[in-house]
UniProtKB/TrEMBL annotation:
It is found in: Cell membrane. It comes from the Bacteria. The lineage of its organism: Bacteria, Bacillati, Actinomycetota, Actinomycetes, Mycobacteriales. This is MFS transporter. PANTHER family: BLL0718 PROTEIN (PTHR42718:SF35), MAJOR FACILITATOR SUPERFAMILY MULTIDRUG TRANSPORTER MFSC (PTHR42718). The keyword Transport does not apply. It is a multi-pass membrane protein. The chain crosses the membrane at residues 18-42, 54-73, 85-107, 113-129, 136-160, 172-191, 203-224, 236-253, 273-293, 305-326, 338-362, 368-393, 405-425, 437-455. Keywords: Membrane, Transmembrane, Transmembrane helix. Residues 16-460 form the Major facilitator superfamily (MFS) profile domain. Pfam families: MFS_1. It comes from Mycolicibacterium crocinum.
Length: 475
């Protein structure tokens, strides 16, 4: 059982420092998460303003950048420090947000790509917490960090609906820019740094970085193009070929360098590869439900409920996010006691049941409202809280930033997989459209549960890991 003893005596920071650190990390996470959560009520406005299919066109580069940045930049932070990379990526996010204010779809796509790289804020935040905190303190703070996945207590989705109806979707990006600038200031001032903090011996494997970026990018684009152009289409086959060649090259170089980027021998362990598969399947099933299927159903005037953005946010997005924020810290504390993997498995099983019930009652508006609010607990709190932490907790001693990078990249690949299968189904416009989408999501969830049973928890230590903030675990 993966378990952390409840002890806060070994925390390396005072209570005030912990509060300020968590505040800085929360704002850095918000700078990314608002880019994902606040656009859900604006799907129709984006497509009407930038053209049909613009929302999906913007989503692919967003998650592609996150996948590449996670496997490269989090590992790089092992060598140059977490704080430097965190500040730099939030600045990049702000630059991308400025581009998203444009009326040109190509510029917006570039902006979304730059914004997507800030996905690494999650991995960096958990690495920083694990290096500084222990026991119950770590568990509660993990819950707080994970709760940001659902936005700011649901208020962001509701506010996004109001802003979209009143001022258009660009007002959302203006707000995100303000949050990003605040995050830069807070991280610079309140995230502690040590000259030896999070530094690994050796040099960054940039050759391996190129190959892993091509591998992850190829998988992401194959899933994206295969979903709407056909799995045997020319672009999809080209991306598949790039993936295979890059993966082979990565395996060759991994055995020839002293400090490989990933360390494939670690990924072959049951402590690593099942976590990657589970992450992809959870993102490709459950998360696409709230991020795409439910908003589309709510606003669809023919097969759905025909609601506006504000009502969609108020009924379907805000309640689940509120539940997540209220319960995630308690879930994190529970995970410290009974095991992060155990809690995650329970959340997956419960979410399968909730999505299956949603498929049955998809024609009843208020039944769906109640079930999606419950989904905020079973999925967003009980699954995401331990899942967000496991990349760090299951990491190898030699390459502490490798598994968190791959695990976080799996979020983007999972979302891309979700859009690949859900996009054509939701866009079909038949009366059974959303029923089918919910049942498919439940089926993928069953596969996620099966792989979670293969995952072997890694024994953890009670105090913050060391030396010098390294995420290596001591037995």
């Amino acid at each position: 059982m993966s378990q952390l003893p409840e002890s806060a005596e070994t925390d390396s920071l005072s209570r005030r420092q912990i509060i300020l650190l968590v505040a800085a990390l929360v704002f850095s996470l918000m700078s990314f998460s608002l880019n994902a959560t606040m656009l859900a009520p604006a799907v129709r406005d984006i497509n009407q303003t930038l053209g049909p299919g613009a929302f999906v066109a913007m989503s692919t580069p967003f998650y592609l950048a996150g996948a590449i940045a996670n496997v490269v930049l989090i590992r790089w932070s092992d060598y140059i420090g977490r704080k430097r990379v965190l500040i730099g990526i939030v600045i990049v996010m702000c630059l991308g947000t400025v581009l998203c204010l444009s009326t040109s779809l190509p510029l917006v796509v570039v902006g979304r790509f730059l914004q997507g790289a800030s996905n690494i804020t999650y991995g960096l935040a958990f690495l920083i917490l694990r290096a500084r905190l222990s026991g119950a303190t770590f568990g509660v703070c993990c819950g707080v960090m994970a709760s940001i996945n659902g936005g700011v207590a649901g208020g962001d989705a509701f506010l996004a609906g109001i802003m979209t109806d009143a001022f258009g979707y660009r007002s959302i990006f203006a707000l995100i820019l303000v949050v990003g600038l605040i995050a830069v200031a807070f991280v610079w001032k309140w995230v502690p740094v040590d000259e030896s903090d999070s530094r690994s011996d050796g040099r960054m494997d940039w050759v391996g970085a190129v190959f892993i970026a091509l591998t992850v990018g190829g998988i992401t684009m194959f899933l994206s193009d295969g979903g709407h152009a056909g799995w045997t289409s020319t672009p999809a086959l080209v991306y598949l070929a790039v993936t295979v060649v890059a993966a082979i090259a990565l395996g060759v170089t991994d055995n020839r360098v002293e400090h490989p980027l990933i360390g494939l021998k670690h990924l072959r362990s049951r402590e690593a590869w099942p976590l990657i598969v589970v992450t992809i399947l959870v993102m490709g099933s459950f998360m696409v439900v709230l991020g795409f299927i439910v908003p589309s159903m709510s606003e669809d005037p023919d097969s759905g409920f025909g609601l506006n953005a504000t009502t969609t946010a108020l009924l379907f997005l805000t309640p689940g996010a509120v539940v997540q924020v209220l319960t995630s810290p308690f879930v994190g504390r529970l995970a410290v006691r009974v095991g992060f993997v155990t809690v995650m498995r329970a959340g997956i099983a419960a979410s399968i049941v909730v999505i299956a019930l949603t498929a049955v009652f998809a024609d009843h508006r208020y039944a769906v409202v109640a079930l999606i609010a419950l989904f905020g607990f079973t999925c967003h709190a009980v699954i995401l809280t331990p899942l967000s932490s496991l990349g760090v907790l299951q990491a190898s001693d030699e390459a502490p930033g490798a598994l968190p990078g791959i695990a976080n990249a799996s979020y983007g690949m999972g979302f891309t997989l979700g859009f690949a299968w859900a996009g054509p189904i939701v866009g079909s416009g038949t009366d059974s459209t959303f029923h089918h989408a919910f049942w498919i999501a439940a089926g993928i969830g069953v596969a996620a549960l099966a792989f979670s049973l293969i995952l072997r928890p890694k024994p953890l230590v009670s105090g913050p890991v060391s030396p010098a903030g390294s995420t290596a675990h001591r037995t």
